[in-house]
Amino acid sequence: MIGDYSWTSVLIFSALVIVCLLVDLFAHKADEVISVKSAAAWSAFWIALACAFGGYVGATHGSDDFFLFMAGYLLEKSLSVDNLFVIMAIFASFSIKDKFQHRVLYYGIVGALVLRLIFVALGTTIIEYGKEYALTVFGLFILWTAYKMWSNMRHGHEEDMTDYGGHWSIKLTRRFFPVHNQLDGHNFFTRQNGVLCATPLFLCLICIEFADVMFAFDSVPAIIAITQKPFLVYTSNIFAILGLRSLYFLLAAAKRYLCHLEKAVIIILLFIGAKMLLTVYPGWHISPLLSLGVVLALLTLGVLLSVFFPIQAACPITPNYAAQLAEENKRREDGAASAGAAEAEKREE
Q1: CB within 10 Å: which end of the chain, N or C, has fewer?
Q2: Which long-range contacts (CB under 8 A, 24 or more apart) does 185-189 make?
Q3: Mean pLDDT, residues 101-115 taken together
Q4: d(Cα 212, Cα 207) in Å, to the nearest integer?
């Protein structure tokens, strides 16, 4: 992986990623829903970190390598847009609560660090043999998940699954190793009658890793086409996917507040699933630029429809709701202030 780069550069990159991931883990150690403000701040942080590392590359190896790094980073960022919606589809399939999603994606990144390294080292030549079969299965899975999301939305509810006994992942994996029917908090494994069992949250993590493998089929060769320097290929890949989680939480938060965005997401999933299936057949290819344009256009349409044609019961961003929320927050603050004053008076007495 080193090529023209020294072990010092490798150590700097490794230390930077490890320290930042540890800070991220500490900042999100509680099982809480990621707010829009937090997701936006972390997105800005990861983008700034990637630009700073690009500056280091330019300062130590010249402007050409800086431009190659930034080109690879931006390309991977663009190609990863599809992955955001696939992640959303996987979480919907497993009915994973928002508060557990950061933990799954955090450990998904750890797995991606290893998987992307393998892809870059092999140049995707060996893994390419099974590409068609994997893309077909995954494309069908995405189409099925889009249907499930549409069905839940049409019936006006989201599945809050507690017993996963009938879930496809449990049926598939139980024959190979013990799997528990229910979530055990945020744990990936739990003990039942003295036997160590995987939880549905762990199976969801495996699906997230599989999704990363699927998208690496396209993104890694695309970046290799820009530069054949393994260090630049790998580092640009990693910095792009490090910021992917924060972008996902921005999207997930927006989906909670924009009532028509979920419909746009379902259409995007149908598009992505169809694109994966078409990729298997020779002569059919949708360019990354067209794919990105379709996704951005559908997202924009979903946002605009939510703003200009809100559904009062479903869109909490309507003016009436905003006023009610502000009033509720004010009452809560006044109540807290009154309680604090009463407690202070008691202490003085």
Answers
A1: C
A2: 185/31, 186/31, 186/100, 186/103, 188/107
A3: 84
A4: 9
Burial 237-271 (b: 16+ CB within 10 A, else e): bbbbbbbbbbbbbbbbbbbeebbbbbbbbbbbbeb
Tokens of 254: 């927006």
Q: Torsion-angle region of residue 123: left (phi > 0), alpha (psi -120 to 50) or beta?
A: left
Using DSSP's 3-state secondary structure scheme, residue 178 falls into coil
Q: Which residues pair with 190 in a beta bridge?
A: 197
Quote the tokens at residue 8: 């010092």
The 10s digit of each residue's pLDDT in 257-274 is 777 777 887 887 788 778
Q: What three-state secondary structure class fits 192?
A: strand
CB 275 within 8 Å of CB 291: yes
Which amino acid, 332? Answer: R
Question: Could you tell me the CA-to-CA distances from 162 to 111, 165, 183, 295 in Å, in that order?
Answer: 27, 9, 7, 33
Q: Which two tokens stand for residue 96?
A: 């994973």
Instruction: Pick the closest to residue 272 from 116, 150, 146, 152 (CA basis).
Output: 146
| Mean pLDDT to the nearest integer, 177-194 | 81
pLDDT single digits (tens) 138-150: 678 778 777 777 8
Q: Within a 10 A sphere around the Cβ of 231, how many other Cβ atoms? A: 22
* Neighbouring residues of 270: CB distance < 8 A, sequence distance ≥ 6: 143, 146
- Do 268 and 150 touch, CB atoms closer than 8 A? no
- 257 neighbors 112 (Cβ within 8 angstroms): no
Helix, strand, or coil here: 190?
strand
Sign of the torsion formed by the C-alpha atoms of 245, 259, 207 and 273: negative
Cα 65 to Cα 71: distance, rounded to the nearest angstrom: 10
